[in-house]
Amino acid sequence: MQKRSIVKAVIFSLITCGIYGCYWFVRLTDEAHEAAGRQTTASGLMALLFSLVTCGIYLLYWMYKMGETVNEAKRRRGMHADGNDSILYLFLAFVGLGIVSEALIQSALNDIVAFDENTSGGEIVLASENLPGNPQ
């Protein structure tokens, strides 16, 4: 995972008429799964394909699940996770502001990357022992 400039991503998405936005969508999906330690939706490329084939219906599901995925990744690290992110991302996408949701997801992933870099010199330390279903 790496930090990405949200402003650059939005500008590149607009300049390329959404082509960079598709790449960004794929990377967001894959990096959110990496941060959470598990795949919560289809892989990035498949999620993009499903969103195109369903004319955006899968995108609404994806927005909601990405909110849950980012919150899970934050909780694994002991960071504060707001449980309402999923609803916010879904609402913004529903009213046509999906790029704002993607920017918020990227911001959350940037926070996770910064946390990981500051924790033990860049070594990722997860609080996975606190998750249900993990053997101790």
Q: Could you characterize the architecture of this molecule?
A:
The protein is mainly alpha-helical and 136 residues long. It is built from six helices and no strands. It has helices at 6-15, 19-36, 44-53, 57-76, 85-94, 98-118. The radius of gyration is 15 Å and the shape is globular. The mean pLDDT is 90.
Question: How does the SSE layout of this entry go?
Answer:
Layout: H1 6-15, H2 19-36, H3 44-53, H4 57-76, H5 85-94, H6 98-118
Helix pairs in contact: 1-2, 1-6, 2-3, 2-4, 2-6, 3-4, 4-5, 4-6, 5-6
> What's the helix count?
6
- Give me the strand/helix succession: HHHHHH
Largest sheet: none
- Detail the poorly predicted runs: none
What's the number of extended β-strand segments?
0
Rg calculated over all Cα atoms: 15 Å
Query: What percent strand?
Result: under 5%
